[in-house]
Amino acid sequence: MPKRINNIYYNALTFSKIKAAYDRTRRRKKLTEQTLRFEIYLEDYIYDIYTKLKNKTYNVSKGIGFIVKEPKEREIWCLPFYDRVIQQLYVYEYIMPYMLPKFISTSYACIPKRGLHQCINMLQHYMQCAKRNYKNPYVLQYDVSKFFNTINKEILYKIMCKYYKDKDFLELTRKYIWINDDKKGIFIGNYTSQYFANIYMNELDHYIKEKLKIKYYIRFMDDGILIVEGKQKAKEVLEKIEAFLKENLELSLNKKTRYYPLNQGIAYCGFKVFCTHKLIKKQNKINVKRRIRSWRKIPKTKDTRKAIKQSFNAWKGYAKHANSYNLIKKLEESYKKSI
Fold it and tell me: Is there a cis peptide before residue 71, judged by omega within 30 degrees of 0?
């Protein structure tokens, strides 16, 4: 049992820390009515947050839900700006300093300085190491079924209690976990949800690394990659992971979970990764071509041209991390015709 964290709640309740949480929330956000109003009455709002947290009268808003269809259909929840400032304070002051050191070094999603491209680079490095060290390297690729929607709130809270002792902090934590009452799962889109998800899956991470002794393992949210010696080992490890998830976290794996020889390459996080090179996934190429075709049909104004340019440059920045020089050149020509 790790030493539990205590006496932290009131340490974060200062005007300067709440102001810093506001600055982080405001950064790179569009100037909406909510953000503008918060900015105009900044001191009043900071004092209001301080008072509500100190008196423990703050209750989390339920926010607004909307549907996104790419890369797959999901319901996303967005809290009001006021609540997002408090979420920033919660994550930055209470979660990051204490939980990040407890995460394994190869967990990548939503962790500072551990993003998508660092994940893909480490995956390729592990593939190269496994090819040198194993005679018959096999990939075990798992994907949790309906991950955010099936997280058990009681189990999540027990995990938080395993690490934290501070009753005031845990009371606020309960409010974030039970935003949607007693329904199973946590909201996708909330800043706290990203970290709760990582804390939940951290239990599996340590089981894989410490109990199963898997050397080559990485995870990006609920998608994991293990590289082991041989097909039989992959099968045995998969059975143990399925049992652990069911018994300890009440999660199950979906049909995308499988094991296969390393030399087939690994489709992961938008790339197809091989020991010697990286490619853009086929679906990503289809999506960007479709987007470029749609740009040709919309009326061109200064604002639409700016938005199109930003969108294409963002894709190009992503594509440059793969061996995709010819693809970028070809799509750049189509893009120029669209504007």
Answer: yes
